[in-house]
Every structure is written in structure tokens, then in C-alpha cells.
Structures
1.
Amino acid sequence: PLVVSVGQVVPHEVLGMANFNKNLFVGVGGVEAINLSHFIGAVHGMERLMGRGHNPLRSILNYASERYLQGELDLWYVLTVMGSNDETGEVETKGLYIGNDIRCYDLACELSLKVNFNLLPRAPRRVVVYLNEEYHSTWLGNKSIYRTRMAIADGGELIVLAPWVETFGEDERIDKLIRRVGYVGTPSVMEALEGDAELRNNLSAVAHLIHGSAEGRFSITYCPGRLTREEVESAGLGYADLDAMRRRYDVETLKDGWNTEANDDDGAEEEFYYISNPALGLWAVSGRFEDGSSGTPTPSYPPSSAKRGGTNLTFDGQEASDASGGVGGWKRPPDGSNSR
């Protein structure tokens, strides 16, 4: 049978680069495929994956494609690369690739790294990201963290202007999990996973918590329009008042890239880096991208009891959540609907 898979290739927090056979094995593969792939990617390390078309997790999907799909399906990929117009700022198609093997994907990745990848000459100590009306949860809004963490300087700060953010998860169950565990760093999340059956059955939530943690290397200040200070800080994030921060960082006048502001103490100019749409790219400094390092040691896994031989963690029985959509998430569907 003929199968046509259509999608956009862009740097991705789970598979390194989005689309190609991810559409088939993860996109329509069911809840186990979504949750396990996101968990494997998170534990392997986001900085080792993002912007890399070939990595261990992608190799699993490539092997599955060769073994189970290529001989059974007339499978064609239609892959686009999207980017901003230099003059108007509008999103436009930069490339279109059609093929039935991995070369189609490789060519799209090559262009995407030129269009969507922003290699900075130095690490900004402050990054300001604006989230538009499409982002109403940290589940979606933490793309601001995923896409900038390879650029932010050690000891730096990420400020997230999030007028429409009103919740953490995309459904009540995931929202409660995020509030209960928080963005507390990989070791603490993995420790919580060991003794929590609900977490083990929602590995995409575990991946999200790992992806959204700064691991102590930089700070994250959320400025949500519809969450309280208490809610934000109890989830392990910093909080600042949205109105005050919008007066300080006027998104109507800021330009994407390097900007400056006057220091309150002495009036000296301080620079920061502004991003108006984190979904359109990946930002890094050359050293961190080339060696795949996050700047912090990578913890060893499995968790402590498994290393002692006391417990083997099993992850069968993964649960689907309405509108959760994996780590990337979907927009919340209309009330009473479980799909878009």
C-alpha cells in the first residue's frame, strides 16, 4: 500500500531532528511509542540529541524502518524546512524534499541546520523568550527551555514571558504529576520515578520534567499571566510579575537576537538575547553543541535500587492522557473533545 508521510524537519528535543520515520513510529505508534521514546531521549541527554540528525534514538527508528516497513509499504516522505523571511519576519517554506529513503531526511536536516539553527559567538548570561497565545501551559511553553539551554551561560538566567500560560500539564492528571514532582533536576526526578507507579506509567511526563529542569546550571524565571507565584515556585521554577517584566522587556520593540538595557544601579548597558518564537529554532554556543555537553555532569542510570540489584523497573502499561500529545503536546481541544 502507498503511505505518504508529510512533515516539517526542525531541531527537536527528543529525536534530534523532527519527522521522517518519527511520524510513523512515534506520531501514530501509540502511547507506548510516545512515552518510551521521550523517556529514552531524556535519559540519554537532550544536549546529546538536539540538532543531530543521527543519534542512538534515531538509529532505533531507522533499524525498525529497514526491518519492518521498507519491504512492506510503498513509503514516501514529503519533508519541508520552514524559516522566517529576512525582510518580513513571516514564516515561509525554505525547502521541500520528497523521497523514499534516508537521503531525503539527511538533505532536509542539512538545510534545517542552516535555517533553524542559531550558533551564537558567545553564551548570553540572560535570555528572554516570549510565548504567544499558542502556549497556555508549561508543557508547551517549556520549549523556551529546550531550545535555549545549549546557549545560556553557566550561572545565567532564562526569562519566559508567558501571558497565556495558565496550567502546567495539558490535562488534569499530567498537571497534578508536574505540580507534585516539579522541575527539580534529573537525579531527583529519577528517584521519584523509582517509587512512583503513576510516574512509571506516564514516562512522557517524566521526560518533560527532565527536559524542563535547568539541572542547577542556570536559573529559570517564569512570568505567567494566569499562574500564581506560589504555584510556579512550588513546581521548582522562579517567578516574576508579568506586567513588570513586560515593561522592562517590550516585545513590541525588541528585535530577535542581541539587545541591550540600562543597568538600574549605574546606568551601564547590559546585553541580553531575545527570542520571539522558540518553536522556530535551536540556539547554542559552538563548544556546547560540538561536544554535546550541557556543562554539568551526566548522572548514571538506572536508579540506585536497580544498580544494587534490588529492583528492576518495568514500564509496561503506559497510560494515555487526553490531549497530552507526548512531550511536545497538542493545543488543548475544545471542551468535551479528546482530539483536535
2.
Amino acid sequence: KRMFNSLTRKSTTLSLLSGRYTFYSISNRGLQTKPLKVLFFGSDILSAECLNHLAKNKGGIIEKLEVVCPPDKPKGRNQQLASVPVKEKAKELVLNVHEVPVEGLRGWKVPGEFDVGVVVSFGYFIPRLVINSFPFSCINLHPSFLPKYRGAAPIQHALINGDKEIGVSVITVSPITMDGGDILWQKPLKLDDDITYTKVLSQVMEIGSEGLLDVLKNIDSAIKNGKTQVGEIVMASKITKEKGNIQWEHQTVKEIFNLWRAIGETVGVTSLLTCGVHKNLKVKLVELRISTEREKKNVLLNKIGDAEFKDGVIIILCKDDMISVSSIHIEGKKKISASQFQSGYLNQVEKSLFKFHSESIN
């Protein structure tokens, strides 16, 4: 095993369902004395925020900072070209931007001289030729305790599974396996039972930026003393719209709530709804929670999916308990509160005709 011989180690050992981990942060010993020329690879809001933090260190540990990102793509009803968030941030920071060619990075050459590549939510596999162009290789920020949750959606999968904590990792970029590089830096992040994706992402932005700077300040020793990933590999594949379809007959209240925590603010959790003459309306449950005892009092629902409006929320009977929905979005309409839904759709509707049901998955 390769160990952190030349680094001072601060470790915290935590018990997790999947085992025990020791987390390392790098001390200020052996700081990088020569400012670094950094080429940043990114795309989304997480990478944009990390880029912003690195830019604040330009003139300090960072001498030169440029950005590689996906090309503009048509978006929205009008199919107008739109830039990814990291490109917008780079323009705001007046940084040079290089777009990925249509054919990807195979055969692509690094545009100039750089010491290290920094990769955050980039979305492209980086070939060995590109990695080897950097004297200090490439490093990657990934929000999980690798090798758990390799892939595109680690935060979402952690929330769906009801994990009590995740990790934020800085690793080397592997030319063979996505998210399979050596671990250079890790830090745990606790997850409250009701925390949602956007709040976790905000915390990851802050912690991850700290980790990237910590590694860059000690880049030589950090790369030399990286740790091979050990443990079970768990994949965290990209979340599709279909993942948000609630399966009322099969999912528990906790599973539905965790699904909403993970993707309710992005992809959305959806259901079909029958309400009087309105049949099979496709709806997003925008705001929901597990029903309180006060909300459930005197609510009599017989079958899974049966619903009732009470005290400003829609209460729905699930497999094992009830959930309360305070905001709803009917496809093709504007988002409305449960009270607005009651006024517009539930008046004159028999209770037996108000029901949520699952959309078939082919």
C-alpha cells in the first residue's frame, strides 16, 4: 500500500453501513512554491462555483487559469443556443474558454502549456494523451466516498438510498476507469433526514473548492502519495425522467420522500391523477413531506393512492403510511398550491373520484 509518508495526516474514522473509512486532509507542509498554470474542465453549476473559487486564487497559488467546456447547444422551445454554467462563469471572470470538439477529446491537444488539469462535473472521458500533457497530471472532484457512487449522480443516489452522510473526494483522473483514480483528499458531509439535493450541492461546492485548493497547494506530494481506492464499487448512473415516476403500490413513504429529496427539485417526482372528469392528469409533486400525526387525524382513506384535501395539503395514502403534498404542478399548467388545486379541481368532486396512481413503465 502507498501511504501518506511526507504529509501530516488528520484523520477521522466514521462508522458507515458499508464499512469504516479514514479520511485525510493535507497539511500546509511542503506547499507548492511555484504558482500553477491550471486548465479547468467543467460544465454544470458545481463546476462553475469551483471555478469561481479557484479564480479568487489567481495571482497566488494559481498563475494561469483557462477553461474547457462542452459546446453551446440548442435549448428550450425556440432551440436557441445556450452555454453551460461554467462557460457563463468563465466569461464573467474574463477567462479564456476552449470548447470540446464535436468528436470529443480523442486526438485533442491541450491548448498551450499547463501544469495541471482540474476536472469537475465535466461529462467527458479524458484520454491518456491529454492526462499525460500535464506535468502534475489531472485531478478530479467527486462528491462521494469513492469507490462508492462512481458515475454521474452520486448525490442523488445517496439521497435516494437514505444515506446519513456522503464524502467529498479529490482524486487523480484515471485514463482507464471513470472516477477510478487514486484518492488525494476526502472529507465527510453529514446528511440531515430532510435535506434536499440543492442544499447538499451547495455544501459540496464549498467543501469541494476547499479540497481542490488544498491539493493544489501540495500538488507534488499529493500526487505522489495518492491512495488506491479500496472497497465495493457502487455505480451512480445518470438519473432519467422515468426514475421520478412514483410506484404507489411498491414504494414506502420513506422511499417516496427520499426520491423527492433527491430529484424533486430537478427531474421531479411524478404521478398520474384522476380527479372527477379529469382522468390521468400527469402531475409533479413539487413540495411534499411525510404526513404528521395531526395531519393524519380523522383522515379515512381505503386504498393506496386515495387522497383527501385537509388544512392546506393533499394527503395521499401510500403502501405503509401517508404523505402530504403542499404544492403541485399539472403538466401544461402553472405550479399551484394544494389550496389552489382544491379550489380549481376538487369542488363538486366525490371523494371516491380523487386518486393518484402510477404511470406504467415500459
3.
Amino acid sequence: MFYRRSRLLNSVTASLTSTEFAALPSLEAPYTPPPVLLKPSVDSRQRPTILFGPAPEGTSVIPVPPEGLGSGQPLYKISSPTCDYVSVRLTMLKAGFKRIGASPRNDELPANLIWGKSAPIKAPPTGSPKERSYLNTKLAHPYQKFNHFPSSHANLGCKAGLALNLSRCHDKTKHFNPTTLVYPSQKDKINELIAGSPRHHRFIWKPARGSCGRGIMICDGGSIEAVQRMEQGIAQKIKEAEAANVSPLMYRHYVVQKYIDDPLLIDNKKFDLRLYVVVTSFGQSIVAYRHQKGFARFAASDYNEASIGEKYSHLTNFSIGRRIFEPSLELLAAQSDAAAVEA
């Protein structure tokens, strides 16, 4: 993808006149770091908080140049390479944060924010279970924040953990949460559910720790052979991962759900909504904030109920849908190269 974009960019710059090219912004211009925006607290006894993103209309903020903060400039650290996202780095940069490396020599540096996969867990000390639960995840300084609560991935981020937690309150969630089982720990129940269902019922299998539409399969109900085919598919995915020297852990556990056979469509396409919420407390009362904006993801092809193997019709993952347009991007790049050569 980077190579294709580079070729397109080269084609564009090649068509510019010398005057137009000189008017392009220089990449060597001196960089001025953005100010740190401090939002005063409604309580005069409390310190101001750092504001991320543009200030809402009517909000008073105090812009402070980072150099004016000296050693007080906010710091952040990304503790896991798999969480090193451009969106995170850009957001922190715009907020005036300075990044410090994740090497062991920086472990004692007091980063205001640590961004990673899970909160650091230390060896459990003596004391009551409540004390151990607190001390195990206590960071070095009271002002430090981690982007995940302890065990939140195992209980919410992992589909298997989320399914088991929702099953504990099934009476309250059954009107919006389809029957969900975990493979292989609930294999007998899965066999019973799928084999005992009509043939027109379908079931979707998703890796418990998967993402980006990887490893998803759909099967019909009405026979035990359908489950056996899914097991063969899982075994094949594990074999392929091992052959590619990639960890097969993602395919070890699956969640199995009854597939919604009459989905809501827009322009004959499946879609889902992404709404973002940050939870700041799981104490006596849950404190959560919902982002004002969200977005919808659409399947790349029209919904086709008859074809369960057509992933572009059934999956709304962007990483899946964009592949259908890659041949067009290759053609566009080739046409741009040809036009540049002719010029």
C-alpha cells in the first residue's frame, strides 16, 4: 500500500511546474510544538486538567507552551509495540505530551500516561484479597494513568470473556444478545445447539481474541457435520499460522453465536455502528463518557442471504471490505505511471 501511494505521489509531483513545486510547503520548516491546553477545574481547590482535542465552544482554556512547563511537561509511554498506533501518537502530540521510550531504563520515569495492552501486574503481596487487588496494579505515582483497567481485556475485550459475563445476566440481555457459546470449552452445548436447529438457521464463529475480520466462519444448522467442518477449518488455520511462524493463539478459542438472518440494511448493505465510550470508574457506580461522534461501517457488497461464504457481503470490517477495491487501486497506479511516462 505504501509503495502504491508513493507511485501516485511521484506521478502527481512529476506533473507540477517548477513554480507550483516551489509553492509546496517545505518539510524542513522549523517545528513549533502545540501548546498544552489546561482546563480550569470548577473547584478552585483542584488543579486544572489537560484538554485533548479542540476546546468545546464556551470552554475557557489556558494555553501553555511546552517549554514553559520545563520538567512539568506531560509525558507518555507506549509499553507494548502492538499498541503503537499513529492515532495515539498524533493525539498525544497535539495535546503537548512528550514521548519517552519503553526501554527498561525508562521504567522509573514518571510518565503521566502509560498506553499498553494491560495494566502492569506485580507479584501479589500479603494481605486481604481486596488489598492484593489494589496493590497489584498500583502505579508508581498517584497521578499516573493507564489506558486499561486491570483484567478489562479478559472480561470485556476478549469475546469469550464478554460472552461468559453476559451469560450471567442472560435474562436482562437476551432481547439484544443472541445465544453465545465458547468453543472448545462448551463444545457439547454447541453440538446440541447447532445439530438441533433447523437447516435454515445459521451460526457465526469468531476467534475470541481476533480482530479485523480474521478467522470468521459461518455454518448452517441441522447437523453435527456442520460443527465438524468448522473444527476442520479451525485446525487448518492453526496449521497455516504455525507454518508462517505466527502464533496460532488467536484460533485456539472461538465464540459461536446464532447469526441474525434478517439484518437491518441500508441501500441493501449490512452495516454496524462504532460508538466510543471511556469508562473512568468501576467503583460503587460506573462512570462513563460517550464520545459525541461515531461512524458507520458498511459491507463492500450487497447483502446475499444465499451465500454464506461471501465475506464482502456478510462482514463490515474495513480491513476486509477494502480488499475488494485493491485491484482498482493497482489499475489507477498503473495508469498514473503510464501517464507520467508519456508526459
4.
Amino acid sequence: TSAGDAWPWQQWCHDQGPLTYGMCTTKTRGDLPTVAPNDSFEVSWLRRFVAFGDPIEYKIAQEAKFWHSAIAVRHLSSSMLMLFQYEALNFEPSSFYPAVSPAREIIWNNSAVVGWLPYMDPNEWQLNVKMGVVTGVVLNKWLDWVPGFAAQHPTYNLWNVWDRVGMFPTMRDKFQFFRDSCCHRFTEDGLSAFHTAGADFSAVTQPLCRNYFVIIQDTLRPLTKVNIHHPKEWSRVVDFYDGLQHLVGKKMGKVADMVKIWIGLVLKYGYTAYLADSDLSNYYLVHLSMPYGVYLLQRMNLPWQTGGDPKECWSQENVSMPQDLLMDTTSLVVV
């Protein structure tokens, strides 16, 4: 692209349609442009409430601060704009866990895609943070990164696994053992990838707050890979997901209700839970520790930022931090 040209986005847009929410998919580097190295581009981080179609579910999303995030790139000398998002192709509460067939087969419906739109409606986003301006050299490196993220995250997963100490943002890296695969993972990793490519976003010192659904691991019992060929081990995985079908079938008034029902299920299974890699090639057994599973509002872990505490995002959003979380984090002593 050049400053004088119209934005000919159609030549890079593939697989656009209702199944991808109108987005152009990003499977290879050929699905994205290569920009002029000396041009300038503004990068923004965007956030809005999750757009559930059901009015009750949308109300839950608003009250719980259940967000969706994206990254926008705007050429400062032309009409070029690209809005990048990671989306589950079937984004409903029932898509977060698989179904189990009568033949006891696990059936996933959580395919996801990284895509982009050649436009953006600013009225759809409650928060728009200008991260900074990058050169075409930096942007091209970042565009090289995008298809790799898409390939490594073909399915959607909300859950992270942390040690209890990981609830402190400054300690998360050392005590994080399994990472989610969701829109916020894309934007958190995407902003870090911009930093690696040479972007200077150091002027952004405010916490960029996102949702985390976290399973708390027993410190003394590490995450273990399931032997899917062992009948007894695999049967327990199937039983666990079969139980989760009853969870996602319930109408719940709060995100906290979902977490509490999930906790009840994992207690039934001996303080354990199961997770799958984004490519569904491996399953893992997690031994749990108090408080078992939590829903958190916390800052993204970005390489140019330091500090942070468990309460800051709750305060920033004018939401009271749940008392059980407050007690649990204040009881920890980090050396």
C-alpha cells in the first residue's frame, strides 16, 4: 500500500461470510498485506461487552464485566484500517465445553479463527486505548506473527491454570501452567508481539483489564498429561465432560454462578478437572487447591509494564471484588 492509493482490501480478504462474522480469515501470510516500511500506523486496543444475542445473557455480560477485545491498525496517510479479532465460530455458553455422545465420544464445537475487518464502528466499543504509532517495518513483523497465533489456537478455551500465587499480576508468569485461548489471549499476546517487533508503547501505563477464568492448581501436584489410550484414564475424562453438559444446560444469573456450579462438579470428581490443548491433541489432569476456580478482572501481563495488584481492575471498573477472593489474596504472603 502507499499513501496515495485507496485501500484495496479485497485482494487479501478470503473466506468472508456469515460463518466468520463477516471477517476475512487469517490462515497464511498471504491473507494479509505487506505495507511500505517507512509509513506510519496507529495501533489501538479496543474492548466492549460480549455481544450475546440473548438479552438475559447480555445483561449478565454487562454486570460481570464480561468483555471482548480486539486490536485496530490504522494507516495515518490513507483510508487503510484493519480490525483484528479472535472469535469462536459458535460463541455461545454451550460452546465452552464439549458434548458427549451416547457412544461416549467427546464432540467439540469450539472452532475459532483469527480474522480482520476493513472497517470499524467506534460506537460498538466502550473502550479505545491508543497504544502508539509504529512504522511499516514493525507492522510487517507483527503481520508475520498473526498467522502463527491462528495456527496455534484453532479452538476456543476460556480456562487458565495458575498456582494460587499467580493471582498476583507480578507473579503470574512464574505460576501460570496453562493458558487460555480466547480473544483476550490474542490481544494480550498481540500487544506483546508488537513490543517484540520494536513498537514503543511505554506511554501506556494504565492497566489494560481483561477477564480471566482460572483453575487453581495444587502446588504439590503438577499438571499431568492424560494417557488417552488407557481405558480407565480416558473414561474419567469422558465422565467429567458428560457432567459439564448439565452445567452449560442451566440458565444462570451471574458468571459467579457458573463458576460455583463448576466448582461443585470438580469437587465431585475428587478435586480434579480436565483441560484440552487448543488443537485437542492432548488432555491434562489438574489437581485443585482452594479456591479451586475463580473469575477475575486483572491487567494484561505486558512486557513494558510492571506492578499491579489483584484489586486494581475491580476498582477501575467500579465493581466490588468478591469477598472470598479478597480474603484469599490478602492471606497470601509473597516472598
